[in-house]
Structures are given as structure tokens and as C-alpha cells.
Amino acid sequence: MSEKQKIFFAELQPYLNRLQQHLAEFGNEERIPLFYDPIHYILKLPGKRIRPLLVILSALTCGGKLESALYPAAAVELLHNFTLVHDDIMDNDDLRRGQPTVHKKWDIGTAILAGDGLMGLAFKKLLECPEGDVLTMVRRFTEVMLIICEGQGMDKMFEMEADVSEEKYLEMIRRKTAVLIELSCELGAITAGTDQANIRLFRRFGHALGMGFQIQDDFLDIMADEQALGKKVGSDWMMHKQTILTIKLRQRTQGNINDLSFEEFRELLKDQRIVKEVEELYQAYFRDAFDALNTLPQNSYNRSLKELTSLIQNRRW
Amino acid sequence: MSEKQKIFFAELQPYLNRLQQHLAEFGNEERIPLFYDPIHYILKLPGKRIRPLLVILSALTCGGKLESALYPAAAVELLHNFTLVHDDIMDNDDLRRGQPTVHKKWDIGTAILAGDGLMGLAFKKLLECPEGDVLTMVRRFTEVMLIICEGQGMDKMFEMEADVSEEKYLEMIRRKTAVLIELSCELGAITAGTDQANIRLFRRFGHALGMGFQIQDDFLDIMADEQALGKKVGSDWMMHKQTILTIKLRQRTQGNINDLSFEEFRELLKDQRIVKEVEELYQAYFRDAFDALNTLPQNSYNRSLKELTSLIQNRRW
């Protein structure tokens, strides 16, 4: 992380400490360690906690209380970790944030059960929220959980499809990534009891931030400087994963791009002006995210949301 | 099934047909077959649908409407199928009701995702219920979903523990089996908008029925006539699974019972009067189930619940 990022996250640390208290204890830990140990293990891995921060800052921007916002904040983090544990099994990944994944440290059965538990605990936390329209929150939470599962299904289907359209690809990342970021902002706004117009603006902000983030993620995986990214570039390419870049290139060249070397692939992306096009695409989403924030109440929390958006937009990781 | 059972279930067929409509379509099937095909596959396997029938008959006993009861009825069936799909992976079972399990017909990743989807769809159905205190229903549903996961965790832990106490074993089957049957009856009563006293009686009925059912299940797996059971007896014994029978025998004999042959084991159970004791235990639960029903409104639906309880109590499968 850059110095600027470190300062930003340090200022938000008190929120993250309170969040961690919500994620630290659930009740039956001592009696059923095989169920709760993997759950606490994944919740303790270092993470940026972007989603719960979005819940908290969205709520505070609308005049909501931190104490209430912590419940949906914990719920979206639990939902996110549910998807991580189950996706790691499906993708057969050994490492998560440099540590063994749950199914590697324990076994597949234990990891399936831990994911199920994280899902149940997510609903539990949300239902405990002392303020706001809890029933509306649970309805949206359920919808989004299903959309994420559908997105994972689409992603798995794309592995077997030769040509996925750009439109279908964008629909998939909306489901897999953007809806949860959208939900995080929306739940913050709902807890604060703000009006429908603001809730819609927060959804627009979250959607744009989520889409921008994922398209940029695809971009950085191929085009980033390896040292700045902090992991090997080209991992999507190695796995023959369809991304916005491969889809555009396949459309443009009509050829088999799997035979290219990674360097040839990068050169072709530049020649075909795809690098520029994709950069413009995600920058447009980030612009829309800022536009939405500019229409919302202007205060220090809104400024933090802008700073967070700007950190993501300018990230090299 | 006996003639009596066939007639009973034939009379309830109209309810089951309406239920199946709720389980037949969810919305995005055509676009994401990899996600929805396994879900429809498991929901079409023949099953007795005991849990949704309990929701419906409990609601009707309290003067509730069938149309409303179908939502929680579908929700508990979806929750039940979520546990089946994930448990089959954990237990590495190849067959479910004579058909390949989801992870055998597709693969583990697809089955994990199908289970997650069934869970999401369960919440969705429950939230669509047009009558009754939906928020209370969702709270109870979430609690029970977590208790079932904890029960599965306890069950997995017991595989590695040499001596499990009777008390802990009963706590495990309460979590793994009885709470969902209890919830089914409770949700039926809540949809009907009945009073707290009746809701408590329905919980008592469901708890007793669920405990009686599971203890009898352990009993039949060892003591049943193979032909009547319709599957091999002794499957729990073969797998060295702890059951109320092995736990009582280990306490009584203080010896290593794993070295016994199946026939020796059965003989010892009779000699030690454990057969009789366990029969008395589950019969006491069934009696309590009838007692609860006798205190509830007496009508044709209550009579159906008694008949269903009696069919379970006298089953040989």
C-alpha cells in the first residue's frame, strides 16, 4: 500500500476494530470447534474490508448511526467470505491472501460446512440490526445472494463456451462482483433511514464502483507492473480465463488467441487499441461513481467515500 | 408403502401438486442451466415431502390458508434439499433415492453451488409469503439453518471421538433432524396467524415427532427386517457410525464393540435390554407428539397429522 492509502485506512481503523468485534464471536464456539474454527480462520485473514467500509460510510453520509450500520457491515463481510470459501473449493485454489485456503487447511467437507455457516451467520447479523427497515434489507440481501450464485454459475459456464459476448461478460461480472458492492452501499443507506432518492443514488454509486473495480481488475491482471501488483501478472491468461480483454481481442482478430505467447497477447491488445478502450470503459464507471457521490449529501463521510473510490481507481494492485 | 400409506398420501396429493408448482420454476432457468439444472434434478427426485406436508397441515389445523402455507412449505423443502446436496458431498454418497447424487451426476463444484442456490431460494420463497409475520418466520428460519449446520459439525466431530455421551448424541440429532421438523410445524402455525400457545404446542409436536423419527431411524437401521426396510440393514454399523444403540452398548459393556460381528452386536443389544430401552425412548417421543396434537384444535387436518404421525411410528422403512 502507498503512504496515502495507509493514512486513509488508519483513519478508518476504529470502524474496522468495531467490525472485527462483530465477527469475533457467535456463541457456540467452544462446543463445536470443527464448525467455528474454520469460520474464525477465514474471518481473521487480513483483508481490506472494502464492503463493510462502504456500508458504514454510506450510512454515516446519510446521518445514520455507526452502531446500527455495523450489523449490515458484518453481514456483507460474512456473505463475501461465504463466496470466497466455496469459490476456492470450486477453483481448487490452495492459497488465499498468502495463507492456505480452508479446504486445504481442513478438508472439502469442512470447508463446505464453513461456507454454509458463514451464510447463516450473515443472515443472523442482518436480522439483529436494531434500526432501519430490516425486512427490506433481508429481501435485498436474499436477492443479491442468489444473483451472486447465478453469476458464479455463468462464470463456470463460460469456461466451456468458445465465444462469450461482451454483453454477457459484463452481465456476469455485474452478478459476481458489482451487486455485492451495490448492496453494501444500499444497506448502509437503508439502515440510516434515508429517502428513496438517496438509496437509488447509493445503488448507482455502488454499481459503478463495482463494475469499474472488476474491469480494472481484469486489466491489471494483464497490463500491470508485476512488482506493483504484488502477484504474478497474467494469471487469468494462464488459466485461459475469459476476460473483457480476451473477448474483445477474439472479436477483433477472429483467430485462435490461445496459441499466442503472453507477450504477443499484450502487444496485440495495444495494437488493436483494446488497452485504451478498456481503460476508457472502467474510467467511465469510476466517473459515474463520483457523479453519484456528488449528488449525495456532502460531508466528511462522503469525502471518505470519494477518497476510497479514488484509491481504488488509482490502485496498482 | 402399505395400502394404508398409499391411500393417505393419495389424499394429500393435491397439496403436493401445488407444492411442486412452487418448486418447478424460479426465473432464470433458461439463461443459467448449469446453476438451475442440478437444482431441478434434486427437487424432482421422489420423496415423501413430510416436512412441507407438516407445514401445510399445521397451517390448515389452525384455520390458515393453503395458498399462504405453500410458501413456507416450499421453503422448508428447499432447506432440506440444501442439506441433502451438501451432506452427500461430505459423506461421499453416490446414490440418493436410487439416483446419482448431484456431485456424481455433475461434479463437486456444481453441487456446492446448487446447494448454495437451494438455500437462497429457500429464503426467497419464505420472504414471498403473503400472510403471517414474515420477519418472525425469517428469524426462526435463520436460527434453524444455523442449528442444522452446527448439528452437521457435531456429527462430523463424533466421527473422531471415542466415547460420545447419550446426552450429546441426543443434542446432535435434535440439531440435525428434529429442529427442521419442529420449524415446519411452527411456520405452518405462524402463517395461520394463530396464538402463541398454539405455536408452542406445534413446536412441541414437531420436536417430539422429529426426535422419535430419528431415534427410530437408528433403531430400524440395525433391527429392521431387511426386506421391509427396502435397503440393507446395518449401514450405520458398517460405517462405524455412532448411534444411540452403539453409545448405550459401549457404556454398558465398557469394551471395544467394533470387533463384534453384526449378528453378535444385535444379540448383545437384545441381551443388554438396549433394544427395549430404545424402543421405549422413541415411543415416549411419539406419545408426546400425540399429546400435543390432542391439545390443539380437533378437525380433519389435525386427524391427518395424527395419521401421519402414526404412519411414521409404525413404519418399517
Layout of strands and helices, then pairs:
Two copies of one chain form a homodimer.
Chain A: H1 3-11, H2 13-24, H3 33-44, H4 50-61, H5 66-90, E1 95-96, E2 99-100, H6 102-105, H7 108-127, H8 134-158, H9 166-191, H10 196-223, H11 226-229, H12 235-238, H13 244-253, H14 262-271, H15 274-295, H16 300-313
Antiparallel strand pairs in A: 1-2
Helix pairs in contact in A: 2-5, 3-7, 4-5, 4-9, 4-16, 5-7, 5-8, 5-9, 8-9, 9-10, 10-15, 15-16
N-end to C-end Cα span of chain A: 8 Å
Provide the gyration radius of chain A in Å. Answer: 20 Å
Q: Into which percentage range does the β-strand content of chain A fall?
A: under 5%
From the helix content, strand content and strand pairing of chain A, which structural class follows?
mainly alpha
Mean pLDDT of chain A: 93
Q: In sequence order, what are the helices and strands of chain A, one letter per element?
A: HHHHHEEHHHHHHHHHHH
Strand ordering within the main sheet of chain A: 1-2
CATH class call of chain A: Mainly Alpha
Helix percentage of chain A:
over 70%
Name the quaternary structure: homodimer
Q: The CATH topology of chain A is what?
A: Farnesyl Diphosphate Synthase
User: What is the level-2 CATH architecture name of chain A?
Assistant: Orthogonal Bundle
Provide an overview of this structure.
- The structure is a homodimer of 317-residue chains.
- The first copy, chain A, is mainly α and 317 residues long.
- Helix content of chain A is 75%, strand content 1%.
- The first copy, chain A, has 16 helices and two strands.
- In chain A, strands 1-2 form a two-stranded antiparallel ribbon.
- In chain A, strand 1 and strand 2 form a beta hairpin.
- In chain A, helix 2 (13-24) packs across helix 5 and helix 4 (50-61) packs across helix 9 (166-191).
- The first copy, chain A, is globular and about 55 Å long.
- The model of chain A has no long low-confidence stretch (mean pLDDT 93).
- Chains A and B meet through helix 3, helix 5, helix 7 and helix 8 of A and helix 3, helix 5, helix 7 and helix 8 of B.
